[in-house]
Amino acid sequence: MKLKTALPLLAATALFASAAQAYDADWKRGRVYYRSVCTSCHVASPVGQINPSSRTKAEWAAYMQADKHGKGKETVRQYVSKQYRASIKSGNKAAEKFADVPDQELFEDVKVFLMRGAKDGESPASCS
Questions:
Q1: Does the predicted TM-score (pTM) go above 0.85?
Q2: Contact 120/56 with Cβ under 8 angstroms?
Q3: Domain residue spans in the chain?
Q4: Stretches in the chain below the pLDDT threshold 70
């Protein structure tokens, strides 16, 4: 009888624990990081500025899923990593401000900003 009572309680506890670990991405933080870090670098490169509204949500989702940057030579995650932020923080206030944000959270923040600002997103965005 105790096992019948314990199993639903255990299942409910596991469900609650997994829900507590879910991260609700912050598109505003993603916007600040993208505009301050990603855009500043792209403007200085031959590629030039890349606005979120230059791609659809599906294109951004595929890009982030593939995790390929610089024609596949680098990863997108590399550019949201704590290591990368530490390397540029002396010249970039956003990198300094978000120095302690976990990599996965910042990756999700940028991703949700790109989806929101995509050509077919709820608020197409440029980076100007």
A1: no
A2: yes
A3: 25-117
A4: 1-21, 127-128
